[in-house]
Amino acid sequence: MYDLIQRPRRLRRTEGIRRLIRENYVHVDDLIYPIFITHGENIKSEISSLPGNYHWSVDRVLEEVAEIVELRIPGILLFGVPDAKDEIGSAAWAEDGIVQQACQKIKEKYPNLLVITDVCLCQYTDHGHCGRLTKEGEVDNDSTLELLAKTALSHVLAGADMVAPSDMMDGRIAAIRKKLDKNGFSHIPILSYAVKYASNFYGPFRNAAHSAPKQGDRRSYQMDPPNIQEALREARLDVKEGADILMVKPGLAYLDVVKALADNFDLPIACYNVSGEYAMVKAAAEKGWIDEKNVIMEMMVSMKRAGADIIITYFAKEVAKLLQS
């Protein structure tokens, strides 16, 4: 027999011991649930690429929000899918826009629910890019900043508690911060998509948001997947410009980046468990290839272990139910 002084298995023998020494936990307070607001009336339409998630018209969105509140999920992230698009995405900052209407309706009924709004133009432009285009078809960074700032302000005027710019334009955090402060909203935090990669995991979202580019791609403004030093540089700039929370998107394939941000910055770190990551689990579960519930929780704890304080996920309702059970 071997003379084993250290036996790590002693601390794995029972569920009680494992719970006692568990290092990372997922809590319902970590979760943010994305919701897609669409035009029209009496709409609850399941998104084919995101089974279990729906397009909601403004008049029915409180049905979804009521469940979120009941599950004690602290916040939601709103995305708009408008009926009218144009070259500059003017519906994004319209006073009567669908996100603006949804904000007002939700905050009237549930004033304590955290309402975060995605600030971008891709769903609202007829070309599908995240900013104003030049005559040559390139996204014009600097002329886009004012449009993003106007959009953020319109969301806050409608009741949003926090804005989340996802466009990846240079200087957009500073532009939004300046616009909000100038209009008396210095108390409104900015959750920055600080590190957003040009990823192949976004396909189901683009189907859901009707936001795929009509031409070209987004690699000139979203980050190249092999880069991590660039991620630190982007995050550092956003901190300097006034970001309050830093986010990494996607999450699961970029956990090393989540850890790098957690190790280098003293702000809360958010992680977006994106649509492609969600859809892969759903597809594999439908085939019977994985234990869906356990895989979901393993994914969630991996993000917490990497250093995420906040997880934005289409699984939020399922995770909340699993935690309750």
Describe the structure.
The protein is of the alpha/beta class. It has one domain: Alpha-Beta Barrel (TIM Barrel), CATH 3.20.20. The protein is built from eleven helices and ten strands. Strands 1, 2, 3, 4, 5, 6, 7, 8, 9 and 10 form a ten-stranded mixed β-sheet that branches. A hairpin with a 7-residue loop joins β2 and β3. α4 packs across α5 and α8 runs parallel beside α10. The radius of gyration is 20 Å and the shape is globular. The mean pLDDT is 92. InterPro entries: ALAD, ALAD_AS, Aldolase_TIM. Homooctamer. Pfam families: ALAD. It comes from Anoxybacter fermentans. Catalyzes an early step in the biosynthesis of tetrapyrroles. Binds two molecules of 5-aminolevulinate per subunit, each at a distinct site, and catalyzes their condensation to form porphobilinogen.
